[in-house]
Design a protein that fits this description.
single chain; mainly beta; Elongation Factor Tu (Ef-tu), domain 3; SH3 type barrels; 2 domains; 6-stranded antiparallel beta barrel; 6-stranded mixed β-sheet; 4 helices
């Protein structure tokens, strides 16, 4: 699967303060790169939204957009979906594989045992889970460095070190 042009970063939440800052919960994998962006895009029309400032506060970002200057404008922006261009994230330092790129990868243990093929990458507040299927068996593998030890994009392979019992969950 090819890399998409856009990635959804999140939905604008409640206003913070009186000067137009808004909350934005960005998936952990994009947080470092997001903090370096100057511009994002709003909604499906992908209208440009210049960023005035970004700071991390209590598990989410507080973002000041140039076109949101007071609490009323911040309240009006609530529910707006925020996107970034893939190329902008790459320029901002994002060097990992995007979730859509992992679909179709073969998942193997570090000993070479095939576990299955990546069907999806699920984003949850606690982190991402890689959904892997081998026939009728499904595995949900946390996408964390302690378990996913390598992603070989050229070989379309993900190498994992499953914790004891992880591959036995949901497969009685």
């Amino acid at each position: 699967m090819s890399t998409p042009e856009w990635v959804e970063l999140g939905t604008i939440g409640r206003p913070h303060g009186l000067r137009g800052e808004v909350t934005l919960l960005v998936p952990a994998r994009y947080q470092d790169a997001f903090a370096e962006l100057d511009t994002v895009y709003w909604n499906k029309a992908k209208s440009v939204a210049a960023i005035e400032s970004v700071r991390f506060h209590k598990g989410h970002f507080l973002v000041q957009f140039r076109k949101v200057t007071d609490r009323n404008a911040a309240e009006s922006a609530r529910g707006t979906v925020v996107f970034a261009k893939i190329e902008d994230l790459r320029e901002a330092g994002f060097g990992a594989t995007f979730p859509d790129e992992l679909i179709g990868f073969t998942v193997v243990t570090e000993e070479g045992e095939t576990i299955g093929v990546v069907e999806d990458v699920l984003d949850y507040p606690a982190g991402e889970l890689v959904q892997v299927r081998d026939g009728s068996r499904e595995h949900l593998i946390p996408h964390v460095p302690e378990i996913v030890i390598a992603v070989e994009a050229d070989a379309k392979r993900m190498i994992v070190r499953p914790t004891p019992g992880l591959l036995d969950l949901n497969n009685d």
